[in-house]
Amino acid sequence: MLGLIRSLALCCLFALGKSETYCPIVNNKGYDRRENKNNLRIMQYNVEWLFLDYYKAADCPGNGCTWKNETHAKEHLQEVANVINKFNPDIINLCEVEGCDELNSLKDKLSSNTYESFMIKGSDTATGQNVGMISKINPISDLYRNDNRYDYPIDGTKCTYDGSGSEGISKHFISEFVLNDVNIVMISLHLLAFPSREDRCVEREAQAKVAEEIIESYVERNYEIIVIGDFNDYDPNILDLNNDVPISQVIDIIKGNHNDKFTLYNVNELVEQKYRYSNWWDKNNNCYSTNDELVLIDHILLSKGLYDKISNVSIYHGYYEDCERIDSDHFPIILDIVL
Asked: Residue ranges of the Endonuclease/exonuclease/phosphatase domain (predicted)?
């Protein structure tokens, strides 16, 4: 009987070890492990299906995503680490991550041992994707989410889809920092995909209105604002390499152009237009990237107090996009701020 109990216990422990983990709780709140406390380097990186534990609903790793087996997925994770190590960022915002198992595996491959992993579980059960953070700076409070939803179509929409409903931000987190006595909130989000689909146009605008409400609540508390992530949409005022224009008002809403309470600024404005692309969309499905398939859908928006302290912005394009790649179908944005 004792042997049976031990066997069952081991079985249960094994099962628990294979289940996905999340890490929203912050220990040693506010602990800052940067060598230079006056400089802040932030990286925005959609790392394309960073999954190690098999997720059945998406069949990933497997035939449902880019990485067909665990070995392939681990090769991808190593290549993502290689890219991050080129820049040694202080805060890395990551999109399309399964959970904290993946964050911790990635963290262990980074050249600095001063990082911690943070993630709160989202509500996208179809893909199992989440947004997460690896940081040398601990937030001052636990990560949290806003589960509000907004009805669509929103007032004044220019989307032509005639359906209605409500939408929230399935993949996001909110984290708070105090850096050099400045209160900063970082709102990480990954909005619904497909910039040119009219049904997603109305849904993404509803998501933008939820983000707008979150931003307003922090502006009222005199926080500096960072909104960062994969917006899956274009900025109408900061055109990308191919002059893509949005069919939605998503970026305008999140930048504050639809209210008189705040204004945010897109750091991509400081990137020369010929380098403004962060994603490869293989629109003809031929597995080879051409310039007309490169788009800018990843963004970092800042309040003026932070925007005025930018020292450099770049988008790293150090790998070629095709179906044999093991990096990502996105390129990282690197932002430097002098605090």
From this structure: 44-330
